[in-house]
Amino acid sequence: MRSSFPPLSCLLAFEAAARRASFSLAANELNLTPSAVSHQIAKLEQLLDVRLFERSARNIALTEPGREYMSRVSLALDAISTATDNVRKGVRNALHLHSAPSFASLWLMPRLADFARQHPGIALSLSSSPTHSDFATGQVDLDIRYGVPNWPHLHVQPIFEERIQPMVSPAFAEQHRIETPEDLLQMPLIQSVVNVVQWGDWFRGRRVQFAPGQYAYSFDRTSMALDAAVQGLGVACDSSSIAADHLNQGRLRKLFDDRWCVKVQAHFLVCPQRHLQRPEVANFIEWIRTHAIDAEGAASGGA
């Protein structure tokens, strides 16, 4: 039993008033009187022993605890609304997936048609942002995260081993004579600031002195850094797995063979342990692992 769960009527009144910044507008939306809305919110504040709104004769404003509570309550109510809509529409076997943006656009999206063919009964909902999912809201079944894994109390499973290496467009390679790692110091380098492995890590592996900050372009997305390399703006140092479509279609090429790459595990399937019992989650994990094995084999090809 969720003994700490406030009455839903109080939460609805609070969310509407916070969103509309008005007890009167919230009352109109909920078909209540303003005094009823005010009573529900006062009851919620008493239960929480926290003041959620600053009140004046003309307006209301969320307190700092109120803003924090609103951010979580609105997500939880959205999850309830989505679940209700799915039931009404007869949607079953729904899978709510969240992913790091570049992985979603460059690696996952080109393969989703195969998942749909193999699992036509699963309704997939995909969202993407660099912020990790908060499983407490109940909105996400499975999260694909990028970074150094430090997520206690969650199931964490690496997707594949990535090879980080310099890549350029064919036109750039033809215009510039690049034969050694030292040659790159004279080239316009493209940085993806969010990458686990940076240019300095790659140069250290080759025992080449590199001064941080020697970048012609910096981006906060791998997808943009790779697009810049495709456009011939310079040399990107990134995952050949994530850049697989660019490499396979000839938009990019590796400058050196895989002996000169940095190997890392940086993309992970993350979820609460209990989610693994859901067939939709288990099916997706099995499907993505099959594709990941193929991707690892393809990424290990030569320059």
UniProtKB/TrEMBL annotation:
The record's section on SUPFAM superfamilies has: Periplasmic binding protein-like II (SSF53850), Winged helix' DNA-binding domain (SSF46785)
One Pfam annotation, family name?
HTH_1
**GO MF entries:** DNA-binding transcription factor activity; sequence-specific DNA binding
Keywords, alphabetical: DNA-binding, Transcription, Transcription regulation
Q: Domain HTH lysR-type spans what residues?
A: 6-63
- Domain of life, per the record? Bacteria
One GO term of the biological process aspect: DNA-templated transcription
- Could you tell me which InterPro entries the record lists for this protein? LysR-type_TF_proteobact-type, LysR_HTH_N, LysR_subst-bd, WH-like_DNA-bd_sf, WH_DNA-bd_sf
PROSITE patterns linked to this entry: HTH_LYSR
What PANTHER family does the record point to?
HTH-TYPE TRANSCRIPTIONAL REGULATOR (PTHR30537), TRANSCRIPTIONAL REGULATOR-RELATED (PTHR30537:SF79)
Similarity remark: Belongs to the LysR transcriptional regulatory family.
* Protein name, entry field: LysR family transcriptional regulator
Organism listed in the record: Ramlibacter tataouinensis
Q: What is the lineage of its organism?
A: Bacteria, Pseudomonadati, Pseudomonadota, Betaproteobacteria, Burkholderiales
